[in-house]
Write a structure and sequence with these properties.
Elements (H helix, E strand, L loop, with lengths): L1 H14 L3 E9 L2 E6 L3 E6 L14 E7 L2 E7 H4 L12 E7 L2 E7 L1 E9 L3 E2 L4 E2 L2 E2 L3 E7 L2 E6 L1 H4 L2 H13 L2
Parallel strand pairs: 2-13, 5-7
Antiparallel strand pairs: 1-2, 1-8, 3-6, 4-5, 6-7, 9-12, 10-11, 12-13
Length: about 170
């Protein structure tokens, strides 16, 4: 009888679908998401951003977050999207990209959501004005489509190096 119970438990575990937990945010009117495992924290942009000379155009500058210098990347500029002014709901999502902390400036953080991995489909070549190389896929959740970002591709190794140099240059 114990073997029967173990077998049923094993079957239940096999039928449970793997879930992906995402931080959802808006850029303009579109919803995007990143894996929560890459997100460290979400901050309101209530402090000044220090500009960094010769930084790429999509880098707003750096902030001092509890003694740590964090480069701030405006994802709207990075992806060539329209630029509404930074507003009350604007946030910086601190994420880890290739071992370095980077702040992503977004228009609003919407929610943290768990979705089944099966809800994610490969990204079409161009999605919502964002080049497919930056995308991990597109999730269908009810009547919503959520563009999932591949943070390791959103910044090239060269751009990551530039951000690291900008961070070191401000210390």
């Amino acid at each position: 009888m114990d073997e029967n119970i173990k077998e049923k438990r094993r079957e239940k575990e096999e039928t449970r679908e793997e879930l992906l937990q995402l931080v959802l945010f808006k850029l303009g009117e579109e919803e995007f998401g990143v894996n929560i495992l890459q997100a460290r924290e979400i901050e309101k942009l209530d402090q000044g951003v220090t500009r960094v000379p010769k930084a790429p155009p999509f880098v707003e500058g750096v902030i001092n977050l509890r003694g740590e210098i964090i480069p701030i990347v405006d994802l709207r500029k990075r992806f060539g999207l329209t630029l509404p002014p930074i507003g009350y709901d604007s946030r910086v999502i601190i994420v880890e990209v290739r071992g370095a902390l980077v702040g992503m400036l977004v228009d609003a953080v919407v929610e943290v959501l768990r979705i089944p991995v099966s809800a994610v489909e490969p990204a079409p070549p161009i999605t919502k004005g964002v080049d497919a190389q930056y995308l991990a896929g597109v999730a269908k959740v009810g009547d919503r489509l959520i563009v999932l970002l591949n943070l390791d591709k959103a910044l090239s190794p060269e751009e990551s190096q530039e951000l690291a140099e900008a961070e070191l240059g401000d210390k």
